[in-house]
Design brief:
There is one protein chain. The protein is about 45% helix and about 20% strand. The chain contains eleven helices and ten strands. The N terminus is likely disordered. It folds into two domains: about 160 residues, Bordetella uptake gene, domain 1 (D-Maltodextrin-Binding Protein, domain 2), CATH 3.40.190.150; about 100 residues, D-Maltodextrin-Binding Protein, domain 2 (3-Layer(aba) Sandwich), CATH 3.40.190. With about 325 residues, it is an alpha/beta fold. Strands 1, 2, 3, 4, 5, 6, 7, 8, 9 and 10 form a ten-stranded mixed β-sheet that branches. Helix 2 packs across helix 9 and helix 4 crosses helix 11. Helix 2 links the parallel strand 1 and strand 2. It comes from Bradyrhizobium algeriense. Belongs to the UPF0065 (bug) family.
Amino acid sequence: MQKSKVTHLSGSAARRRPRIILAALSAMAVLGAAAPVQAEYPAKIIKIVVPFSSGGGTDTIARTLAQEISSDLGKPVIIENKPGAGTVIGTQTVATSEPDGYTLLLASFAHAVNPSLNSKLPFDPHKDFAAVSLIARSLNIVVVNPASKIKSIPDLIAEAKANPGKLNYGTFGTGTSAHLAGELFKAMANVNLTTVAYRGAAPAITDLLGGQIDVIFTTVASAASLVGGGQLRALAVTTAERSPAFPDLPTVAEGGLPGYAAESWYGLYAPAKTPAPIIERLNKAVARAIQSAAFKRLESNEGLIMVGGSPEKLDRYVQDEEARWRKLIKDANIKVE
């Protein structure tokens, strides 16, 4: 008969063994508790923080998204507008929230350019957030007064070169997509347009209609109805490709600046360390939402191009945007006032 083998532990090993077993049991308990929480997500109201005032384009997209994913997830999704400091206040709110999937951020162009505009951000846009999904890209359009002799992008470039510093363009908000679209145009066309800053699109368009300024790079939502009614003349779209909403309108690149592209975008984020199953659940909800009839209507009304895709796709896109605008912001010495 074989003798059973007995493993003898050293004194120190024997003392460590209960601690090892206890640690393993504790880890299993944590995993066991976390799994049901993730499996039942969502179990309560979800909040999407919009770092802008209500009524703007980002707010409209957030509310449409909230309505669609609420139906998908089976729980209410509410919007909390927290404007201020160029989106920093609302963004920081999400960065410091619990990573449980119940507080989300509807981010836009500012998320990629704020690190270049502000060296003292109270959060890290990469380390403090978990990407959920890119929602859509958004174009700007170049518009002039219909009485202007400028009828195309080549006309605008020629007029600016012939009269350096005499043409002016309206901007609204330092570092906004509309502002940087104009700065990119100036840099690539090697022209000097005088910048006139406004508090919003409405007063800038009012002065354009009145002939006080010459051109604006503006959002579709702010100008589409005026273009359609003949009160403004659209010269081009700022995206790399033509817009389905304006199929006959050329791009700035087609108008004589090859490689020109300037666009805004909208993406959904959660706080860093949000569990992967929750991120996946939200990502799938966004993918279904942007195929809805409500988002189809926004494609033409807001000049959107629906995107979707994996969280990694949003990460790569924003990193590319951050890199491409960093140089322009530095070269043009653009700073937050």
